[in-house]
Records
---
Amino acid sequence: MSIADGGVDLFGVVAAAVVFPTLLAAGGRHLLRIGEFARVLRLQGWPAGLSRPGALLVAAGESGLGLAGVAGAALDGVHRAVALAAALLCSAFAVDAARLLRPGAQAAPCGCGAVDHPVNVWVVVRATAYAGLAAVAALTGPAVGTLAPLGVALAAAAAVAIGLPLWLLPRTLAIPAGFTLRP
């Protein structure tokens, strides 16, 4: 759906406005708490010797893609490449979270928001949604253009309306420990 105020695809603007700030915030948090993030990776099964370098690599990748996505939003070639890389990274997160849910696997923390939050199916759903949004951003081109003020306001409101529930999804839909369904 292209809007008439510059040909900018509003879906792509919203997708980029959800994905890139989320990656920047998550990566920044991981960099600020790199020891905690490395511990989470160890609990997820990473070898002890690789957990800290892996944590640095993942956090730098998230932060770098988030920053490049925000900064390069108006540059078509940069935007598409960064959005594609973000789609691949989020796809890798989804696959890794699904791996942690395999039968017989020990519960592991997510690492995407809080150490005490375990990986659940909604973590996989959320990572897949982020991957899809990043793919939309890659396919639609630059995230900004000559948007009229109403277009900017609409994109910002939509990004918050989509991004906030998506970020909170795994925690809010987690089944509490000890809860069982009765027929």
Note: Confidence is low (pLDDT under 50) at residues 1-5, 179-183.
---
Amino acid sequence: MMKKVKTKRKYISGILMLLSATIVFFPLVSIGGIEISIKSAIQSVYSGYGSSGAATGLISALGSYAKPYMVMALGWFLFTVLSAVSVLMAKKKTAYLSAIIEQVIQIFIAVSLYMKVKRKLSLVYSAISFVGLGNGVKVHILPILFWVVLQIICFIINIMEITTKEETMMEVLPPVLPVWND
């Protein structure tokens, strides 16, 4: 009986997708020295509280301004988590193909969100400078690079699995008994 050698790369891919969703906990923007993550921004905009009092006041003041972006960020986060779960639950090559499609959608949402927020940050920067909150607006690149590296690794794993054929145990294991020709 020949059993197929199963790779567990779909689990690595799913876990990397889940890890990429952790970017919501990292501070991505500093406004006047106050570090703001996606999580703290969503909390401040929707529930009225955040991780620090100063950040809460600042984001509450920008609440109507930031609300559409927080909806998009929350949607991206939920889509990322659901995508990772679907990859972990899918079977064989279906998992890798769906992971690639879901990654393309995640990247599109994340890049469009980043571009929209980046355009608006120049307006926030001028308002912050006018109020005199110091160094203005700073975007933290390290969490973004972490996310990009995770996406690249996950994409490579998925492409490798789609392009490689599954081997059977007979192809992988050397023969145990010698073959005698009579």
Note: The two ends are 24 Å apart (CA to CA).
---
Amino acid sequence: MIWRVVERNVAFLLAGMIILDLALFVRVSSAERRLRSLDTVVRPSAGTEGIPPPIGFSRDGTRIDLSGGRKGWAVRYAGEGCKFCLKDAQWAVLAQELKDMGIEPIVLLPNPQDEFLKRHLVPEGIPQEAFVDVEWIKHFSLSITPTLLIFDNHQRLIWQRQGMLDSADTSSAVKAVSAIR
């Protein structure tokens, strides 16, 4: 009699474990498919070599110089016409932290006519690059605004994010910049 109870409980336990195992397998498989479907900003042909600074010009033809960044630079691919770029409150927080840490931020415009109005430009007064060197742009597949790329002073991409930032992104980016030697 006791053996029947034990056998029945073991059978229920095994059945429960098989169902749980199957549910976990389905969950991991779907997450893996979603992860593979995400676009990365860096083109596969870019390799791991240092990427040159995004030398370019503003809409009015002024040359943009990124030599001011002690630790590197941050490129925000964004434009006035993007409602998500205008609503991205975490960018204001992160941009100031990046400047304080020695990272020089710039805005790379999708089109010259997407230049931010002065009152919408965050942080105030940062350069807006309308035309960029083809040697720089060929390394990336920039199609989503906003996109943020952070480089160290050795011209290596150390952090990237497509879409609006959240507080976890801000923490992650600050941690990546703090790790720069």
Note: The two ends are 70 Å apart (CA to CA).
---
Amino acid sequence: MNKCFSIIVFMFLLSFYCSGQNMQIDKLNRFLQTRFDSCIVYQSYSNWIYPQQFFIIGKNKANVLYYTYKPPLDDTTSISINNKYLRIHKPKISNDYWQQLIISNIWTTEHYIKRELKIKKDSLITTYSIFDGGEHDFYFITKDQIRRLYFYAPEFYNEHAPDKKLQNALKAIKLFRNIFKD
């Protein structure tokens, strides 16, 4: 009985954690939508990584600005530019990253989610699967819309079955990591 009660309490608390994460990105997206002409937001996570962090490239007319956002554990903090959660980032190398992300063809694809991949070679079927792979979200935010692209374990699946969609996503991931490396 005690074990069953513990599991119920754990599941109840987990539901608050999961819904809180969605509220954070919704709040961040609405904030960015009102302050920039357009933005690209990248987030990488897995069930092993916490706290989450968002990498943001915002554009107003010709100005391109870079930010990192680490949401607080509670959902009561308001978002403002250059507070302790949303910080300006200055890339070490000056480059037109915005243009590189726009022409990366990532926005011409849809979500890419696979939990299992079957490859037939010489009448032998090999199954590849992963259940704790990295998850990657991209948000393209304009004044009128917010578009989300989600990729599950793109490195793993591209290694076993190369795919142009995955390769474009991997290029964008690498670009974000280069921009925001310390």
Note: The first strand starts at residue 38 and ends at 45.
